[in-house]
Amino acid sequence: MNQTALADLIFNRIKDEESSLKNQYENTKDQIGYLVIDNLLPDSVAMEIYQAFPDAGLMVLNKSLREDKYIAVQMDQYAPILEAVIFAFQDSRIVDLIKNICSIDSLYPDKNLYAGGLSLMQKGQFLNPHIDNSHEKDRKQWRVLNLLYYVSPGWEAKNGGNLEIWPNGFKEKQITIESLFNRLAIMTTHGTSWHSVSPIVADSKRTCVSNYYFSDIALRTDDKFHVTSFRGRPEQKIRDLVLQADTVLRQGIRKIFPKGAVTTDHVYKEPNDT
Predict the structure, then answer these.
(1) What is the pLDDT of residues 192-204, one digit of tens each?
(2) Do 230 and 241 form a contact (C-beta atoms < 8 A)?
(3) Which residues in 50-70 are b (16+ Cβ under 10 Å) and which e?
């Protein structure tokens, strides 16, 4: 399927659930706003997307105390349907519909896929609690929404690899949003929107298509610029201290180099971009 056909399907499915999605968001927006829609695409299409995912060996491994996952962002190197579905979420109709659902004054997709794209996680991999970088790559707009579309058939909560959000900090139990097949989860990103992916315990792969939306105005009036900031899980006391120190160091570097000391390679470069 091409990008327009996929966008048509996504738009119509979200439109059908617009009222219930608004209620989901309204009931959660005061902390970490989120909404979930299942059966986003016909199962056959979602399965085609899953089957088109590149092998882990063709992706980039991000592995550290912060995270352990495979990513891919240069979409023209992979199956056409993957590029089509990524950019289908950037269709103006879909962006405007989600803008209305979440009552956000301005909302823009990110053609650069800064920190977006594809991700794949296998047994033992994880993403520790973190808040996302507050801005897009040029620090001109605020990052406000994270769209996560899961396409691993037969995925169960017991497999791990589920999205976790921590609206009340790490002293209270997190909310778990299962990474079920053909499910779209949308969550807000701001200075206190801590979220994570639980370690995968099954011998299976978790596949996700992700996009970020940006805005002219931060979701919270007290938001300030911050780098992607990681913490340890509640039981990881020593790792938590190390990751907090790591955040302080990286935040300090960004005060000296506002766009970073090193140019990020987690962006999509159009084929004719020199």
Answers:
(1) 999 999 999 999 9
(2) no
(3) bebbbebeebeeeeeebbbbb
How many independent structural domains does the chain possess?
A: 1
Three-state DSSP state, 34:
strand
Q: What is the CATH number of the domain that holds 203?
A: 2.60.120.620
Task: Tell me how far apart the alpha carbons of residues 97 and 30 are, in angstroms, rounded to a whole number.
Answer: 20
Residue 27 lies in a domain: yes
What is the average per-residue pLDDT within 194-218? 97
Question: CA of 164: how far to CAs of 145, 168, 170, in Å?
Answer: 15, 12, 11
Share of the chain above pLDDT 70, in %: 95
CA distance to 132, 221, 271, per residue, from 274 (Å): 28, 38, 8
Question: What is the extent of the structural domain holding 172?
Answer: 3-256
User: What is d(CA 96, CA 129) in angstroms, rounded to the nearest whole number?
Assistant: 30
At 121, is the secondary structure helix, strand, or coil? strand
Looking at residue 170, its pLDDT comes to 94
pLDDT exceeds cutoff 90 at 20: yes
The mean pLDDT of 40-59, rounded to a whole number, is 98
In a domain, 263, yes or no: no
Asked whether residue 227 is assigned to any structural domain, the reply reads yes
Task: Note whether residue 262 is domain-resident.
Answer: no
Joined together, the tokens standing for residue 180 give 């079920």
Instruction: Report the pLDDT value the prediction gives residue 274, as an integer from 0 to 100.
Output: 40
